[in-house]
UniProtKB/TrEMBL annotation:
Species classification: Bacteria, Bacillati, Actinomycetota, Actinomycetes, Kitasatosporales
UniProt record similarity statement: Belongs to the cytochrome P450 family.
Pfam family, one: p450
Native source species: Streptomyces eurocidicus
Entry keywords, A to Z: Heme, Iron, Metal-binding, Monooxygenase, Oxidoreductase
Protein name as annotated: Cytochrome P450
Entry's Gene Ontology molecular function annotations: heme binding; iron ion binding; monooxygenase activity; oxidoreductase activity, acting on paired donors, with incorporation or reduction of molecular oxygen
């Protein structure tokens, strides 16, 4: 549907086009102006920021708050999550954000991430074993989806028999059907019940896993610790962000390689090049087109436009990462790109805490896939592929492939 421009906007914004042709649409918006006021996905007014320098500055600007207490009520609705799922880093400013992130970092150590390397590799190989004989698969349902779920469950310490259909829950929340809102409410209730029960069991029988460490931080002595809601919300955030974003990043990257057989061959021959390629794939077609919404605590000038306090600001990471003002020939996918500083994992104090884990998972998933199936090819016409119907999540619904 065509979204008519509101006062302050320099170009109309077609929300459907942000799903079907996001990069072409963002290119037109960047050239039309740095900031656009429009009707957002929730039907409320919002400001869309499109150019690299403005987006990068906005991600680190303390005047742009993540705390919904600063939102003008008439301009923001958002998710209606219970406090036990909402008291997380995506809704916090300093000093609470500083305190909680510092405590989480103590448990989310590089050593724990590195310990997952071999289990991730084994899981990837097992998933490929399961589909190899058939000669074809849906890489989202059969590979890119199950792999991150297994990794996150291993990280949190979720026993095999307790693993649920997390994808159904996250699907209901990330792209809710307006005619079936009860599914989102049910998903929220089931997620809360799941994590409440999981924390209780870990508290009774701690183990060598991230959730047990977070519970120890929560139950420790002193004032510098987590509240119960913060603990539950962190577990939810680790699952939700760690699963959803990694699924889409793997799927988007595989599609980019299928579109570029020579690049796929080069990476197959040189898997060590996958590390540098990760950053370029994240820049090129990352899973989160928009940073988490922000609310100015005072009137703020962005790109020469004054955004009033309390209004919703959406920083377009996807647009910034294709901005020719920063990246030379940004429409070219180049793993050896000289320009650094993509914003696909954030910037400033809200830089993605799970970035090392996402990098490790994606590198292993791609290397294992390319090594196993040198004849990998799309199993449907390119134009039949469908994307998630969301401007906030960039990911394929399915990715049918075959191999010789």
């Amino acid at each position: 549907m065509q979204n008519s421009a509101l006062p302050g906007a320099s170009a109309p914004i077609d929300l459907a086009a942000l799903v079907s042709d996001p990069y072409g649409t963002y290119a037109r918006l960047r050239e039309a102006g740095p900031v656009h006021r429009f009707t957002g996905p929730d039907g409320r007014p919002a400001w869309l920021v499109t150019r690299y320098e403005d987006v990068r500055a906005g991600l680190a600007d303390p005047r742009l708050s993540l705390d919904k207490a600063h939102a003008a009520r008439e301009n923001y609705s958002g998710f209606s999550l219970p406090a036990a799922l909402d008291s997380n880093l995506l809704n916090m400013d300093p000093p609470d954000h500083t305190r909680v992130r510092r405590l989480v970092v103590k448990a989310f150590t590089p050593g724990r991430t590195e310990k997952l390397r071999e289990p991730v590799r084994r899981t990837a190989e097992a998933l490929l074993d399961a589909v190899e004989a058939g000669g074809r698969a849906d890489l989202i349902a059969d590979y890119a989806g199950p792999l991150p779920i297994t990794v996150i469950c291993d990280l949190l310490g979720v026993a095999q028999e307790d693993r649920r259909d997390f994808r159904a829950w996250t699907d209901a929340m990330i792209a809710p059907d307006p005619e079936r809102t009860h599914l989102m409410k049910e998903a929220i209730g089931e997620l809360l019940a799941f994590f409440t029960g999981l924390i209780a069991s870990k508290r009774a029988a701690p183990a060598d896993d991230l959730l047990s460490d977070l519970i120890a931080v929560r139950d420790g002595e002193g004032d510098d610790r987590l509240s119960e809601d913060e603990l539950t919300s962190l577990a939810f955030l680790i699952l939700f962000a760690g699963y959803e974003n990694t699924v889409h990043l793997i799927g988007n990257t595989v599609l980019a390689l299928l579109d570029r057989p020579e690049l796929m061959r080069q990476l197959r021959m040189n898997p060590d090049g996958m590390r540098a390629a990760f950053d370029e794939f994240t820049r090129w077609d990352g899973p989160a087109p928009l940073a988490i919404r922000r609310f100015p605590v005072e009137d703020v000038e962005i790109g020469g436009v004054t955004v009033p306090a309390g209004e919703t600001v959406l920083l377009s990471v996807a647009s910034a990462n294709r901005d020719p003002r920063h990246f030379d020939d940004p429409e070219r996918l180049d793993p050896n790109r000289a320009e650094k500083g993509h914003l696909g994992l954030g910037h400033g104090i809200h830089y993605c805490l799970g970035a090392p884990l996402a990098r490790m998972e994606t590198e292993i998933a791609l290397a294992a896939l390319l090594e196993r199936f040198p004849g990998l090819a799309l199993d449907v016409p390119r134009e039949e592929l469908k994307w998630r119907p969301s401007v906030r999540a960039r990911g394929l619904i399915s990715l049918p492939v075959r191999w010789k």
